[in-house]
Amino acid sequence: MSNRARLEVLLALINLSAEQAMALYEQVDGTVPSIDSTEFHPLDEALDQVELKAAIRTLEGTCTQLCTTLAPPGHTAINLVQVYDYSCVRLAVRENIINILMDYPKGLHVNELSKEINVEPKKLSRIMRLLATRGCYSEVAKDVFASTRLSLVLHSENPVRHMVNLHAEPASKGGALIYENLKEPQTAYFYHPDHCPVMDANNKEGITGAFFDWMRQRDSTRESYHRLIQRLSIIMGSSAVLTQFPIDKYSTVVDVGGGIGAFSLPFAKMHKHVKITVYDLPKPLTQARMTQVWARDCPEAVQENRVEFSELYFFTQAPVPGQDIYYLRNIIHDWPDEESLVIPQNVRKAMGINSRPPPPYDYVVRQLNREQAALEASKFGATMAPEPMLPNFGVGNMRMYQQDVSMFMHNARERMLPEFLELSDAAGLKLEKIWDLSEACVLEYIAA
Ligand SMILES: C[S@@+](CC[C@H](N)C(=O)[O-])C[C@H]1O[C@@H](n2cnc3c(N)ncnc32)[C@H](O)[C@@H]1O
After folding, report:
1. pLDDT tens column, 404-428
2. 259 C-alpha to center of ligand 1: Å?
3. From CA 432, how far away is CA 58, in angstroms rounded?
4. 330 pocket-lining for ligand 1 (C-beta < 6 Å)
């Protein structure tokens, strides 16, 4: 294929995937969103966004590949590093700018906004203009800013905001230490979770242990973390397991490291015949019980004793035996290889011969080598992008690689398929199938 022909295929894919996305919005309520919409579209918070995410994966991958091909490299290189969006969003979140703007549907002048949050107006207008250029707020008249659909996720009641905060604060501080971590002799070849970039950058109190130990002693950070995890499953697309995986034929489910129930709560709402056990550390379980998360959003599951909250330290304890499903979401990725193996080994001890699908995980980092990607596609059903896209969908799957670096900051990792296979072999599990949810995956295992 000539260079021009390749670019023309990318253009056709952009068109096709954008049309698919528009049709999906229209199917829901007959409309497509605009950049300055001031309300969420009903599809924005849907549990199952698999089709939309598949279209966006192609759209983002092809648009970026096209721009990177046609722009001068220096232009693209500077765009990669001259990024201050997270600092600007940090201000917006800390000062609850969206909460204020919600009271002014026609917009608020930056001079008024500056009085409310005590930030010098000329400086503030520059930050607001950067964000509005991204579609976060709109400048409806000179220096007058109003909310947009994108800015709504920064509202104090929206759980995505907690995720934004995690990346804008502790994660970005950890990210600044990656080079030093790779080069300094005491950290370069070392994978202990207690001394990792995110702990070195944030653990000013000298707390002993890993990130979860640090959070144990910081109530508001921990509570905010567990709220963000609730929303993360929609962002990553893993909540689609509830509709895409034939989970309704099972009657007992164990959610290992289930937090405050980001998976279990919508699951209990949807499948009323299932008995669920949520395992975690004591404080997240207290948050699940005490903050009324369940009492408010799924009181019937508590009243009917369909959900039980139990303490379980997954490095040293096995869950209750003989349940149908042992679910582990976003658990293995928090730990280096040595610790990661112990968790499925403990789960394997509990599994009966009929237990399925033990245990699913989430991101499967995709191959950039087309031959290897094709092998994984034919053997396990992993999805591969068509040429001339990169086989991993390029920037369409960028969060997976960003997330891997986020985990790097914990001395942990997201894993590629061969690494999952190594881990499951060692834990006595056999991979049957990969369920691609257009970003996150479910790995279905049986006992080996
Ligand atoms: C990334 S969160 C995943 C939460 C949930 N599975 C989800 O995806 O919605 C990791 C969870 O592991 C729990 N955890 C961390 N260390 C643990 C340990 N040693 N034993 C049991 N749970 C632990 C945390 O409290 C947290 O809820």
Report:
1. 999 999 999 999 999 999 998 998 8
2. 6
3. 27
4. yes
